Amino acid sequence: MHSNTKPGMADKPDCSMKQTSDIASEVIKEKEADISRYFENGSRTIFDEIVPSKKNDFSEVQRSTMSRIPDFELMSDRSNEFLKSSTLFDNELLDHSASNDMHRDIWIPSEKTRKVLRSIATSAMGSNSLERENLTMPGLAIQGDMPDLIKSTAIRYLGEAENIHRNVRTSSDVTQDERGLRNLIQAGCYKAAINLSGKLLAVYAQGYGKINQPSKHTPHSLQLWYTRLALLTKLNQVDVLENESKPFGNLDKPDMYFTFYPDLYGTRPGSMASFSFRLLLAEIPSYCGRPKEALDNLYKVLATVNQIITNFNDGYSGDGSRITVNAVEQEDAIRLWKGRRSRVLMSITNCAVGIKNYVLAVDILEKLCDSPDWSPEQLEALKSSIGRLHLFLGDVATAERLLINENKQNSSLTVREWMDRGLLAVAHNSFQEAYKYFQEAAMLDPNNIALINNMAVCLLYTGQLKEAVHLYESAITKNPARSLQESILLNLRSAYELLTHCEQPKLQLLSQLNRYKGDAIDIQCLKLGL
Bridge-partner residues for 271, per DSSP? Predict the structure, then answer.
């Protein structure tokens, strides 16, 4: 969408729009109703906590006509939820330790893998089990710890005295187990968590230099790898991510299944790797600039999930073995795997947007709306997502029909509905009207940083630069731990650069980062000339 030229903004069309994105995809060049150039229009979701935006600096954004698309607020059950709660280890390990939850671990191996597992199950020691082609051999791709760049940058620009205000945990400050790992993640110390994960994986002989070296796996070691790879994804460590995820392939090597270790698990069927790990590995190529490869991976996962659902519907085990499942277990298993199918479809939608296949994205979302399993709130969120996608397509009329409920009074509108009205106003270049709608939403949810950001961008596009800066700074002063996010810092830094003097305010931001944030923020977003 082309904005009207605003005072002081003519040469800076994209300086305030670089946002972290739920969809993590690039959109097509400027279109009349391409609201993605302006706003992060959804509330923060767990996917935002894992997938970072690409860090274009100010000059790159000036030259580019590409930007992130806004957040899709699709559903509460997301594929990568480990940062959201105690699901980091507890829930996944419970899945593997409770025998009556065995259906959760079911997966259908390839025929080649099935033959190896059958050989192991029918012999004292399968002769093929130790052949390298049957082994998954991961290891760390980096040696030593990832540095805390916020700390070192603060010392460089603000002096050694600033270090006294840095109260951030390192991998040595917590218990050397999954509890310590969880504490680091909850504190926003993602680099320290990656460092600790490396120490814990070294116990499994999977540390630095161990790629292509045989080692044994457990549900616990694979959960460590899932956590580590997801954190690398969040921090946009693409090279390390590719090297460390590659040995896992699609998790189909025989040693990824319980049956490979009869001395530990007997004849227990199923995969030791969690479904979340499987889904993350399928998605990783999209984070590395290969969304079509990710799309192919996800459709393969979807085909297997559909077959598992079919097997359970027929009254048998999910892997197709002729083991009769009782009615209660059958119902629970089908519900579980239908939920997982929805998660795969959400990931496919994200990848479809990444390759600009909006027709596929809309088609999937519309089919998801037909499911009877959604709550009213979830269904409304899905419909809102479809409406917002039509805005990206430039179809404002259809978007308005989907997003606006004329029968609702203003007093009963939700945060999302006010947000949708604001986005429609943006599509019509009505920034003052959009500001009022976002303001109404912010009154209902004053801690929603995305709303504060959208309001500030509206001010920028109506030429109210100082007011926008004040709004950003007020939000940071009020709640620095919550407001100091990369998207906000990028926008505020860009606003500072429109002013005559911007170095000192950026140093103040650096001081606040040093005092209130962990080690996960990319310090380059301040553009301090590192």
Answer: 257
Transcribe 79-145 into DSSP letters: S--TTTSGGGTHHHHHHHH-GGGGGGG-----HHHHHHHHHHHTSSS-TTTTSGGG-----BSS-SP
Contact by Cβ (8 Å): 171, 184? yes
Is residue 36 within 8 A of residue 3, CB to CB? The reply is no
pLDDT in tens, the chain (530 residues): 333 333 232 223 232 222 222 322 222 222 233 333 333 333 332 222 222 233 332 222 222 222 222 222 222 233 333 333 233 333 343 333 333 467 899 999 999 999 998 888 887 654 445 788 889 999 999 999 999 999 999 999 988 888 888 888 899 999 999 899 999 998 899 999 999 999 999 999 999 999 999 999 999 999 999 999 999 999 999 999 999 999 999 999 999 999 998 888 888 889 999 999 999 999 999 999 898 999 999 999 999 999 999 999 988 888 888 777 788 888 888 989 998 999 999 999 988 888 888 889 999 999 888 888 788 888 888 888 898 888 888 889 998 988 888 777 777 888 999 999 999 999 888 999 999 999 999 999 998 888 999 999 999 888 898 999 999 999 999 999 888 988 889 888 888 888 766 788 889 999 999 999 999 888 988 888 65
Burial of 144: CB neighbours in 10 Å, binned 0-12, 13-18, 19+: exposed
Q: Can you list the alpha helix ranges (DSSP code H) found in 159-257? A: 178-186, 190-202, 219-234, 238-245
pTM for the model stands at 0.80
